[in-house]
């Protein structure tokens, strides 16, 4: 049984939500210390940790980042945490890479860092690690993600994943309560929410862009069915391929929501609860990753860069530190039926490919 499978076998059984990855972090930390790394735990007061090895020779500092958190699901009416996005595999790949980098004495110059980050799904884990100084001394950072089978099957990998910007906006619509028989005496918050949803649906950007803005949750209940509700809450999910397009889309959405509510005398209190930037990927690092993929899978195993409307908080690293050179790649694992699906599964043997590609990248930068 390979090292990566052993790690995965354990991590998969202890799914923990964002900033609650206590068992996950403790296990990874223990393994890294045994491997000979200097480990910093509880980065910025979180479950995040950083492992460092310094060769003692001049060279760049390369960081490999993995996310640790599971997703929240409601299964049979019960809330639970499940690893349905592959973060347990990402952590297993990074941890095994860290062990084998030491076992095989791959690092000949510079420094290698392994960043195990909490709360990617919350969109705030990377920011917490940045605030804790995790990348202050990092020159190059790489991340990876398992890919759905239809996008990238097992035996293939992409050197660049161009994720979109994503924004979550939550809005409380405030009206005036009244009896259902006398609606003229109130202001229906549900009407305001409905008008806002339609107003946002009417927003247009350049049609050449792949973007979307849609309501994904609406909560409204006056407690009885014959009263005018005075409050409604609506959540919107926004996607855009570039940070500039997201800025434009967000501004239009916020304006549409405000004007829609005001049109019937209601008010709208909007909060941008989560913002994840679009991918900012360095061409030089992408080429290093591409060569690493070919080292392991040959020329035939390298596929073109992938563009996706999905979001990834990894890109807060280059966003917050523009001097850092960032690369993010996708690993084919025959993942089905899709990311975030309760029945998500993949070919576990592909994790060894991820380890070998990661090591090849480390070899090219620090070998």
From TrEMBL:
Pfam families: M20_dimer, Peptidase_M20. PANTHER family: PEPTIDASE M20 (PTHR30575), PEPTIDASE M20 DIMERISATION DOMAIN-CONTAINING PROTEIN (PTHR30575:SF3). This is M20 peptidase aminoacylase family protein. Keywords: Hydrolase. Residues 167-260 form the Peptidase M20 dimerisation domain. It comes from Orbus sasakiae.
